[in-house]
TrEMBL record:
It comes from the Eukaryota. GO terms for biological process: regulation of translation. This is PUM-HD domain-containing protein. It holds the Pfam family PUF. It comes from Genlisea aurea. Pumilio repeats lie at residues 1-34, 35-72. Keywords: Repeat, RNA-binding, Translation regulation. The keyword Cell cycle does not apply. Signal peptide: none annotated. GO terms for cellular component: cytoplasm. InterPro entries: ARM-like, ARM-type_fold, PUM-HD, Pumilio_RNA-bd_rpt.
Length: 98
């Protein structure tokens, strides 16, 4: 805990964060996602070659209000990230699962 945004932007540890999102119980998943979306590096995650996959995993593994919160945060940054190829991937995922 406390390092998920940093780990999400690394080639190998981003895979570990994605796995954590898949296998964690709901409470742990909410903690991880809260750390990701409320951290100062969230905009960097969206355009990072590895972080964008973590954000997509966060969207796919959450449900209900938490999923809507992640999607809202992504859509709030859409004007900033739509010009980036990694950002467009996250936007497409968010729009698909809206």
């Amino acid at each position: 805990m406390g390092r998920f945004p940093f780990l999400s932007m690394n080639k190998f540890s981003s895979n570990v964060v994605e796995k954590c999102l898949r296998v964690a119980d709901q409470y742990q998943r909410l903690q991880i996602v809260n750390e990701l979306i409320n951290g100062p590096d969230f905009s960097n995650l969206l355009v990072n070659p590895f972080g964008n996959y973590v954000v997509q995993s966060a969207i796919k593994t959450t449900s209900g209000g938490m999923r809507q919160l992640v999607i809202k945060r992504v859509m709030g940054m859409s004007s900033m990230i739509k010009g980036d190829m990694y950002g467009r991937r996250v936007l497409a995922c968010a729009k698909l699962l809206r």
